[in-house]
Amino acid sequence: MPDSQRGDLPDLTLRIPRQTLLRRDGPEFRVAASRGLWHPDFLMTILKAIRADLTTLQVDAIVNAANSSLLGGGGVDGAIHRAAGPELVHECRLLGGCTTGDAKMTRGYKLPAKYVIHTVGPVWRDGQHGEPEMLTSCYRRSLELAADRGLTTIAFPSISTGIFGYPIELAAATAIQAVSDFVAKPSSILEVTFCCFSAGDLAVYEGLLAP
Q1: Of all helices (H) and strands (E), which one includes residue 116?
Q2: Which of 24, 87, 96, 197 is packed most tightly, with the most Cβ within 10 A?
């Protein structure tokens, strides 16, 4: 970018790492937008929370909060399998299960999403048995698989907060931190959606994502 176009922003690209979430009300974004500037270092990864049916989202990939067999279950896991159709469980049978904190990818079949990324979250005990680390790994491994495939949009449920009993406030904070850490580095991911089941869960995410 020529110096004549940079004006009073001589160090802007040094202060804004690629793929950082830039809030549209932030000063760096406002100045850059007002000057019509564009640069790879201005790329935004948008993090947002919504209340919706995960199986209806038109994104590149949705994440399934699965059990270790990957063969379907209750909650969001069962809903995804029902919406995707029987082909999904047939492909899952070939994957040999999944360990806690890891993730595996399949096609989306009848879902609007092109892919399903299945990850196994930790069962909450007391937070002193590796639960935060395993939950962080769920988000990181899911994003790694998506980025390896060159996907740009991904939607997560609130992993482990259902029958696995992870407190929503702690789980949401871990989720947002894990995603923020991942997108702070270059990748194909441009938008991450936290898809909430209840209004209460949505309020927690919105509070944590607020400026």
Answers
A1: strand 115-119
A2: 197
Kindly state the helix (H) or strand (E) to which residue 193 belongs, with its residue range. Answer: strand 191-196
The answer to pTM > 0.70 is yes
pLDDT tens digit sequence for 112-122 = 999 999 999 99
Residue segments in the chain with a per-residue pLDDT below the cut of 50 = 1-41
Q: Find out whether 208 and 172 touch, Cβ atoms under 8 Å.
A: yes
- Distance between CA atoms of residues 103 and 143, nearest Å: 9
Amino acid at 14: L
Residues forming the active site: 77
Task: Name the amino acid, one letter, at 179.
Answer: V
Distant-in-sequence, close-in-space partners of 126: CB < 8 Å, separation ≥ 6: none
Tokens of 209: 């994502």
Strands 46-51 and 61-65, by their bridges, are: unpaired
**Tens of pLDDT along 60-93?**
999 999 999 999 999 999 999 999 999 999 999 9
pLDDT on residue 40 = 45
